[in-house]
Amino acid sequence: MDRAAAARALGVAPTASAAEVKKAYHARAREHHPDKGGDAEAFKRAKAAYDVLTGAAGGVGPGASPVAHPPRPPAPPRPTRATLTVSLAELCTGCVKRVRFERTRFPKGCAVRPCAACAGRGVAVRVVRLGPHVQQHIQSPCAACQGTGRTADGGAREAAQVDVAVPRGARHGHVVQIRGEGEQRAGEARAADLLVEVRQAKDPEWTREGDDLRIAKSLTLGEALLGTQLRLDVPGREGGPLHARVEGVVRHGERRRIRGLGVRPPRRPAGDVVVELAVQMPSELSEAQRAALAEAFPPPEASSPAPTHTLERAEP
Ligand SMILES: [Zn+2]
How far apart are CA 149 and CA 221, in angstroms? Predict the structure, then answer.
């Protein structure tokens, strides 16, 4: 079907505007829609005529434009992503680490030509059938040329490595942006940016809560009652471990903290070191311990009736 035939089929002038063509097509489609008992052939003809006049048919017949719309300038390149895993100590102090990843690069001055996969349009069109007579054209950026419409010889994947500066106190998930170190597309001088997501490797002892550094420690009953001292290897701390006094009485599950010795980011208040204390009860007592405890903590007078039952140990 050429333009003139298409215009006749819709009952519009060959020079009709896009709005007139659309209006005429909608009227025909309503009239002939097969779901409403219309003539399926007439409906298909109206659709084909509409496609020719709007260019959606893509180069069918003389007069039809082979390109529906002038090619749009390709979207700016999407940044390339990489991840970098560092220790909790490295997040606390900040560090410079090398990240390795893959990217496509083109040699300087290579000849650029239109992409064969999309004929230089930069878009791939997929036809989705919504019903027996209705189909939808879905456009997406061409995968072969990443939407640029261009290819060039010599483009190759390469192993790349870039040094990434992780700022002091950065959090798990912090993203460092590095200009121009990502993927390159054919015919573009400047490559995409590289976004490096910084992840924290799990620490065997310490966990981070906001800017607090938390550790679990267990105390004997004696330590919990009489006080003790703990050695704390705080991640990222200069000058060796901390030796912190724990003054009794400590309840099981109690949290104690040292203010300001947690993560110290440059523009936020410093976090704390938080110690979660578990109290390990002795499994049994010697006679001497019983006697000493009875003297220190005299049990109440036995005034209640003689016991009738004993509470057994229950599994937790
Ligand atoms: Zn393409």
Answer: 74
- What is the 82 CA–ligand 1 centroid distance (Å)? 25
Placement of tokens 């390709």 in the chain:
74
Residue entry with tokens 């550094």: 213
Q: What is the pLDDT of residues 268-304, one digit of tens each?
A: 999 999 999 999 999 999 999 999 999 999 887 766 7
CA atoms of 276 and 284, how far apart (whole Å): 25
- Paired strand residues for 212: 209
Query: How far away, in angstroms, is 75 Cα from ligand 1 center?
Result: 13
Q: Which CATH superfamily is domain 3-57 in?
A: DnaJ domain (1.10.287.110)
Q: Name the residue with tokens 């040292």.
A: 258
What is the Cα–Cα distance from 221 to 248, expressed in whole angstroms? Answer: 10
Q: Can you tell me the distance from the alpha carbon of 263 to that of 182, in angstroms, rounded to the nearest whole number?
A: 31
Residue type, 226: L
pLDDT in tens, 213-230: 999 999 999 999 999 999
Q: How many CB atoms lie within 10 A of CB 79?
A: 18
**CATH classification (class only), 80-200:** mainly beta
For CA atoms 108, 110, 115, 119, the dihedral sign is positive
Q: How far is the CA of 110 from the centre of ligand 1 (A)?
A: 17
- The whole-model pTM stands at 0.66
- Tokens found for residue 176: 């460092």
d(CA 132, CA 230): 76
Q: What residue spans of the chain are helical by DSSP H?
A: 3-10, 18-32, 40-54, 88-93, 221-226, 287-296
- Quote the ligand 1 centre to 191 CA distance (angstroms): 18
Domain boundaries 207-296, CATH class:
mainly beta
